[in-house]
Amino acid sequence: MLKQQVGNISARIENENEEDLVDNEGSGNVKHLSISYKKMTDEMIRTCYEYGKKVSEGKNAQEMADEIVQKTGMNRNSALMYLYAVSGMLDGVVYKRAISAKATKKYFDYILREYGQKGLNKALDATRQHIEYRKECGLTPDAIETLCDEYEQKE
């Protein structure tokens, strides 16, 4: 059942080219708004990292996601996923939403630069937990696993 739910959520996120909205006049009519897919940019990745540090320090993730959307035009759900990933890495706890291998690599680099080896070790531990979680859900995180192996050898 968990695998099915994760699959449903992933499919919904991937298909966000169209979003249903109920009009504000209370008629209950549903309008379709076409949303163009925005590729994840380096600016979005960096912005999520900066705001993810704030989430790790106790700031509200929902509010931080709203700020990221305003600043970059990023999809709000994606912003939340990236915020939770950064926060999890900084805190050394599992994060359950997937982010790109490109972003993971950048986050490892940022963390190593700002927090040193101890910070990177936390990020690697959190990412290893994330990998195990994904495997339990029947998903294969090969690229991220290879990235962890690479960064663990830098120690």
Order of helices and strands: HEEHHHHH
pLDDT under 50 segments (min length 5)? 6-36
Radius of gyration: 17 Å
What is the number of helical segments per DSSP (H or I, 4+ residues)? 6
Helicity, as a percent range: 55-70%
By DSSP, the count of extended strands is 2
Arrangement of strands in the largest sheet: 1-2
Largest sheet: 2 strands, antiparallel
Sheet-strand content, in percent, reads: 5-15%
Distance between the termini: 39 Å
Q: Tell me, briefly, the overall form.
A: globular
Average residue-wise pLDDT: 83
The structure class reads mainly alpha
Structural write-up:
This protein is mainly alpha-helical and 155 residues long. 66% of the residues lie in helices and 6% in strands. The chain has 6 helices and 2 strands; from the N terminus they run αββααααα. It has helices spanning 2-14, 42-56, 61-72, 76-91, 101-136, 142-152; strands spanning 18-22, 30-34. It has a two-stranded antiparallel ribbon. Helix 2 (42-56) crosses helix 4 (76-91). The protein is globular, with a radius of gyration of 17 Å. It starts with a helix and ends with a helix. The relative contact order is 0.11. Mean pLDDT is 83; it is low at 6-36.
